[in-house]
Write a structure and sequence with these properties.
Layout (H helix, E strand, L loop, with lengths): L2 H17 L6 H12 L6 H9 L3 H10 L11 E6 L2 H5 L2 H12 L5 E2 L5 E6 L11 E3 L2 E3 L4 H10 L3
Parallel strand pairs: 1-3
Antiparallel strand pairs: 1-4, 2-3, 4-5
Helix pairs in contact: 1-2, 1-3, 3-4, 6-7
Keywords: 2Fe-2S, Iron, Iron-sulfur, Metal-binding
GO molecular function, one term: 2 iron, 2 sulfur cluster binding
InterPro entries: NADP_DH_HndA-like, NuoE-like, NuoE_N, Thioredoxin-like_sf
């Protein structure tokens, strides 16, 4: 185990110890770990499973089920494009293709300069303003290709 992995394990164990008394602590712990590191670091799931007395499969199943948990750090800016039905009906697929082409990445990938991560999301609650996106936690409605190009320009992509 590398020194960095050992350090992460100690920090993850401290988060688990602090939050283990919560009812249903797994999701809050995963969120806290991701907040701490920007992702779920290697070895974290094993540490969490030991601390919570859960199988690694259970912890991995939860972490892999939710799209917000990532194994690698996100870029400086995170752009999420809604892929739900209402947004699809209003052109979200073309919008996503435009963003992927412009950034030269696929879904859930980060640009080579680590500036932008592009992620799919399934409903931002702006169905009446479709297609919708989220830029660094801020929800944006009625996003056209031109508007997405301006957003990408603003984040330095």
């Amino acid at each position: 185990m590398s020194t960095k992995t050992e350090e992460h394990s100690v920090r993850v164990a401290a988060i688990c110890d602090r939050m283990a008394a919560l009812e249903g602590p797994l999701l809050p712990i995963l969120h806290e770990v991701q907040e701490e590191f920007g992702h779920i670091p290697e070895g974290a799931l094993q540490t969490i499973s030991k601390k919570l007395n859960l199988s690694r499969a259970e912890v991995h199943g939860v972490a892999s089920f939710y799209h917000d948990f990532r194994e690698e750090k996100a870029g400086k800016h995170v752009i999420k494009i809604c892929r739900a039905e209402a947004c699809q009906a209003m052109g979200a697929d073309d919008l996503g293709d435009h963003a992927k082409s412009r950034l030269k990445v696929d879904w859930s990938q980060t640009t080579s300069d680590h500036k932008v991560t592009l992620e799919p999301v399934f409903c931002l609650g702006l169905c009446a303003c479709a297609p919708a996106a989220m830029v660094d936690g801020k929800v944006v409605g009625r996003v056209s290709k031109d508007r997405m190009s301006r957003i990408l320009d603003e984040v330095g992509a």
